[in-house]
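question for whoever is on the cluster today: can someone run the full assembly for these? two chains, 603 residues total. i dont have access anymore since they changed the login thing
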Amino acid sequence: MWKKTLATISSMVLVFGLAVGCAKGNQQGGGAAGGKLTAVGSTAMQPLVEEAANQFMAQNPGTQITVQGGGSGAGLSAVLNGSADIGNSDLFAEEKKKDPTKMVDHRVFVVGMAPVVNPKVGIDNLTQQQLVDIFTGKIKNWREVGGPDQKIVLVNRPENSGTRATFVKYALNGANEYRGKDSIVQDSSGTVRKIVAETPGAIGYLAFSYFDKSIKPVKLDGVEPTNENVYTNKWKVWAYEHMYTNADGKNKELEEKFINFILTPEVQKNLVEKMGYIPMTEMKVERDAQGNVKNKK
Amino acid sequence: MENRATSEWANQLLRPDKKQRRLELQGRLMTLISAWVIILTLFSLLYFIASKGISTFLFDGVSLSQFFSGKWAPAGTPPSFGTLPFILGSFMVTVLAAVISAPLGIGAAIYMTEIAPSWGKKILQPVIELLVGIPSVVYGFVGLTVIVPFLRDVTGGPGFSLLAGVLVLSVMILPTITSIAVDTLQSIPRSMREASYALGATRWQTISRVLVRTSLPGLMTGVVLGMARAFGEALAVQMVIGNTDTMPTNLIQPISTLTSVITLHMGDTVPGTVYNDVLWSMALILLLMTLVFIVLIRWMTRRGES
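^ ran it for u. tokens below:
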């Protein structure tokens, strides 16, 4: 009895091993453009880049793309010191005080951001001045902007977060560093959404890709935070998602192939839009590191 | 017959066996290598954190008085890197968690070993082992979904607070304190209990005057170990404490700890900048505090032995 089971198991292992071995052999034979690539950086970009990497690997057997988080700063540093091939960043390298001449900037998609409030607050439009006053702590109660008599709870991001940098620059007009005394600071977008959804009187800010029914996006001066409004810069709070590569990287060919894959209309139209981001192909305007906007040619 | 067998055995044991000697040498080599790997890892870790942490003061020109001040404005002009609120936050969370956990843990241990040794242990032991195995992100999430809303309803603040951190941490360090207390209480010789009963002491008197007093160094070791864990815990605390850079002045206000600041900011800062170095200096403080905790434990156990 025992011997029989043992024999069955060992033969199964053998067959399985052979199958795996064959598959491996095939893969090595077929995939001419093999190679390894690491992309490190912005956690906001991570889910999309991961999904794109999976599709890319399926189409190009033999390639191995590893996607890691760690933050925009970490991504840029990793590219500079060569520990990663691609650095994902929410910000221009200039904004992170990094020397941009050693890196090549690839803008792969756009992300829109908007203030979000707890649905029970019942506010759906603010003027930009009101928003600035709320985040600088001048307005402390929702009553002052036409809401219920309720204390405002600010949900912030850490000082160096990419989302925060964009929000401060374009939604708060770069307003004086805000410091709400009784505000909450949290860095993961998922947690921010949960806190805003559950805390009475809470206001925070999120990328469009994190919108759902549990929170309420706020219009600014009557402009709704939608993809269409970002295309024309009518909604100003948006940022490019960058993939930086080292100017003299070792994996240039594969890097370019992967980044061009993300820029193909297929990926932009399907994956990028599906995950709540904004395709580069739809943008009618261009913006540089200094924030100057001009129409795309 | 029997004698001959024994002498053969003795011969075999006394004869230097080549194979055994080689085995012995191999074993010795292996343990030696492991020990050195651990020592080297530890020292390189110490060196790494210390060198990064010290560069804040040596190269970035941040003075010690500024580092221990209360003004945290890393993005301000000029930037200011006062970490006192976080140091105080870490200490307050740790001490308060220990204040809640120590009596509970020691009480549970006494119950398990002295009052209901058979079924008390049968139920409590697995529960405590289970508590150790739960990952800290789960504690944090439970804190975020249960404790924070509860505190918000009761105290009226945002809910994210020093108190929320204390409650989450006290549950997390409870198993550490309890299991060490159980070990200590079990190691007390039976004769001591019997002597106490023989003198006419009640069970309560035996527990409070004899058992707890003799095992005090061991119990305190458990508490300090729990505190060390609380001091270094990052994720669960970060989720419920609010992470504001305000001085911890009351229980229901959001604050920060050293660990929560480090985890929140490390990913977004660029290595080599002052901001990043300051975070490493905070890590150095954490490391030094851990060393203090270890020294404290050694001192207490030695006092217990003498």
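summary bc i know u wont read the tokens: Confidence is low (pLDDT under 50) at residues 12-32 of chain A. Residues 2-30 of chain A form the longest helix (29 residues).
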